[in-house]
Every structure is written in structure tokens, then in C-alpha cells.
Amino acid sequence: MPLTWLQVEQFRCLQGVELELDPHFNLFVGPNASGKTSLLEALFFLGRGRSFRTRRLENLIRQGQKAFVIVGRTGPGPGSTLGIRGSREGTEIRISGRAAQSAAELAEYFPPQVIDPEIHKLLEEGPGRRRRFLDWGVFHVEHAFLPTWQRYHKALRQRNAALKQELPDGAIAVWDPELGEAGEALHAQRQAYLARLNEPLARVGQRLLGLDVGLVYHRGWPEDLGLPESLKRDLDRDRRYKATQHGPHRADIVVRVEGHAAKDRVSRGQQKLLAAGLTLAQLELQESDRPGRAALLLDDPAAELDAANLGRLLDCVRGLSTQLIVTSLSANVAGLPEGGGMFHVEQGTIRPA
What is the pLDDT of residue 249? Predict the structure, then answer.
């Protein structure tokens, strides 16, 4: 269900923010450094339990304060209430009054996606960012994914600990069956998801760039071996590095344009559109399986795109059924939806227009 009410206290420059949100479209207008991106960051944190700008929790706490609080309500009527308190000691998450077991529970109620000026890093940076993108998508369409992912990473931590301690071969290999079984199941779930994602991505790629766009998945171990066999064969290499070198934790996805790796074929502006297209395709697939829950956070889309590319992006965005929350320097951005809620942002204060 869409987010209908939000309260933010002591998060970056924001304090005393309380908003009634439109379930379809909300526009936040203000100058640079006024708190617009901080608002999107707070919304993202409410649904993901982390920031899209920093890994350091203390950076999110308003200067001179001990903690921040973000509370939101989804759905009509009483709906569900999500709450997060973040301090230097960590985060506390509550859902409708009960303590959550993990941040993953938040996404059952409010799973946001963000397109910001740094979106091109999805293509430019290492495979870790792309694996997170991939796993976020699988998580929303495959109910067995989270326990499989947790099972795999638990076995991986144990095997890596044995490697670091330089234990005998038998003490390391004891983890191979569990790691192999969970890893191959994780690979199968990712592969099935990517097969579905390629269809909406192809459509979005044509609309945004007029190019054929697709994904190629590298699973993280040799194609001619099962994962248990690969772990056994390369044990000596793992011992040298004191870490497991093969498995889904080494996987990557390569974005291809007209049959070639996109990173080497498109400009920076096209990279931004392409990475945005990946996000939009993932949202489309997410909404087709579990409609009415997701939100797209769009940070100042006019800042780095020319009028033609901005028009193409917003044309794709308008076709989504997700809740849309946009920031902008100006209220006059051609192509944005009409109606909805509008707010002014200035020096950390937000008020309805």
C-alpha cells in the first residue's frame, strides 16, 4: 500500500517534519541543499532500513542530537505503521507496535526504489552494487529467496572463518555440501528472475534509448562444474586468499546494448538513462506480482538530463502504477503528472504548497 503519512525527526537537516502524502504523486520543490534529497533518503530508510547515500549511521543523525526517528503509515485508515529509531548504537525497527526481526520486514509494507544523480554507478561500479540490485528484485518475487540467501551466507561465513584460521581440509570441506546446495538454489532463483526481467527491460530500453538492451548473468563459478565440485577443486586457491573465491557472492550481471557491454558503448548520459531503465523494469515486474505497494523516489530528474531525455524518462515513469515522490528545483517540469501533493522545502522545513 502507498505511504500516506510521514514523520521525520532529527534526520540530517530535517526536524519536526510531518506530512500527509498523496497515494499517487507528490512533488517537493526547493533550492539546492534545502533538504529535498534528505527527505528521499529518510523515505528510502523507512522501507529498506539503510541509506542510499552512506553506510555510516552517525552521518544521518542531525548535528548535536543522539538519534533520529522516522515513522510512516501505509494504506487507508489505520493501515500499518512503520517506525525506525537510529542512533550510534544501531537501529530499532517496529511495525505496528511490534519489534521487527530484520529490516527485510519493512519491504513487505513499503518497498521503495530510487533514481538519483548517482544512478549511473549501477553500471560503473563493481559487481556488489549490481548483486544488491538483483537480489532486491528476486526478494520481491520469490518468497523462498530470503531464507535461501541467509542459509548461503551463514555457510559462507563459517567456511571463510575456517579458511582464516587455517584449519585442516576436512574442517573446511564440511561446509561445502551446505554451501553448494544453498548456492545453486540461490543461482536458480536469480536466473529465473533475470529471465523475466529481460522482457520489461527490452521495452524500457527501446523507449529510453531506442536500443536493444539485455542482461547477461555470470553466476560466480565455472559453468562446467557444480558448485560443490568447484569448491573442492579450488581449495588451495581459497587457502591462499583465506576466503572462498567461487559462489553466488561473486556473481555479476552485465548490461548489454546492441549485443555489447553497455559500459564500453554508451555515454555518461546514456548510462544514467540505462541504469534508470533497469530500475523502472524492476519496478514494473515487482508491481505485476504484488501491485499497489511500491514507491519510486525520483531525485531532481531535470538536473542532469536534457529536455529530450528527461521527456523519455518521465514518459516511462508516468506509465507505472507505483506511488511517485519527486524532488525538483522548480514546480514547472514538463512531463510530471498533474495533481497530487506539492510541498515547499527550505532549510530543513517542509510545508504544503
Answer: 98
**H-assigned helices in the chain:** 36-48, 121-124, 127-141, 145-164, 169-173, 176-209, 227-233, 235-241, 268-289, 307-318
Q: Taking Cα atoms as reference points, which of 11, 26, 28 lies closest to residue 70?
A: 11
Residue whose C-alpha cell reads 587455517 in the numeric block: 166
Numbers of helices and strands, H then E, in the chain: 10, 15
Please name the residue that has the C-alpha cell 544521518.
60
Q: Please give the Cα distance from 149 to 142 (Å, whole number).
A: 11
Calpha distance 11→5 (Å, rounded): 17
How high does pLDDT run on average in the chain?
A: 94
pLDDT at 77: 63
User: Does position 234 have pLDDT exceeding 70, yes or no?
Assistant: yes
Cell digits for 260? Answer: 555489447
Q: What is the C-alpha separation between 8 and 10, in angstroms, rounded?
A: 7
Q: What is the CA angle 267-270-274, rounded to 5?
A: 135
Digit-coded pLDDT (tens) for 116-152: 999 999 999 999 999 999 999 999 989 899 999 999 9
Cα dihedral sign, 60-63-66-67: negative
DSSP conformational letter for 13: T
Read off the pTM. 0.93
Cα(181)–Cα(198) distance, rounded to whole angstroms? 26
Give the model's pLDDT for residue 78.
63
Instruction: Give the strand pairing for 295-299 and 112-115.
Output: parallel
Of the candidates 344, 338, 328, the residue with the CA atom closest to the CA atom of residue 117: 328
pLDDT given at position 53:
93
Return the bridge partners of 260, or none: 257
Q: Which residue ranges form the domains of the chain, and what is each CATH number?
A: 1-111+293-353 (3.40.50.300)
Which residues on adjacent β-strands are paired with residue 6?
Answer: 19, 72
